[in-house]
Amino acid sequence: MFNVGDSVVYPYHGAGTIKDMEEKDILGEKLIYYVVYFPLNHVTLMLPENRIKESGLRKIIESNQLEEVANALKTSEVPEKKEAARPYSKENETLLKSGCILDAASVIANLTSKQGERNNGLHMEDRKNLDRAKQFIISELVLVNEMSEEEAMSFIEENAHGA
Fold first, then answer.
1. What is the CATH number of the domain that holds 121?
2. pTM of the predicted model, to two decimals?
3. Domain annotation covers residue 1
4. Going edge to edge, which strands form the sheet with 7-10?
5. Is residue 119 part of a domain?
6. How far apart are CA 24 and CA 3, in angstroms?
7. Which residues span the domain enclosing 18?
8. Is residue 132 assigned to a domain?
9. Same domain flag for 97 and 28
10. Could you list the pLDDT tens digit for every one of the 163 residues in the chain?
11. Which residues does 56 contact at the CB level (< 8 Å), separation at least 6?
């Protein structure tokens, strides 16, 4: 499935690297755990091999998919109906939890568009989701194309309209 050294993405945590595989004896049952390190937020997780599929862990995108990410950053699907002061935080949180880079790019596109329409900026939850989405994408771009964090942020800003 995965090997030590693979670059992977875990929903809501972003991209990291499998540092080790450990066998643990839990209540008499031997389980293999992937030890994944996420450098952007300095977190290490141990994920049991038998729960990887449902966890959403996936390999990082290929560099030839960057154009698709750039397009997703440009495409905003903000609802036409203007609802006064209604943050889209639940929808955005659901997209961020999917672990899909295109969903994170969609959150950035939507919130960037919304930010441009509002005189007083985004609601606090929307700002948090925008930051989470950016960090999520940055963590993956750093591993995909060996970009620096600054280059990854520039990629996002250049492609997200009005960012």
1. 1.20.58.1290
2. 0.84
3. no
4. 43-48, 29-38, 14-26, 7-10, 58-59
5. yes
6. 17
7. 7-59
8. yes
9. no
10. 899 999 999 987 899 999 999 999 988 999 999 999 998 789 999 999 999 989 999 999 999 999 999 999 987 665 544 454 455 678 888 898 899 999 999 999 999 888 877 777 788 899 999 999 999 999 999 999 888 999 999 999 999 864 4
11. 10, 11, 98, 99
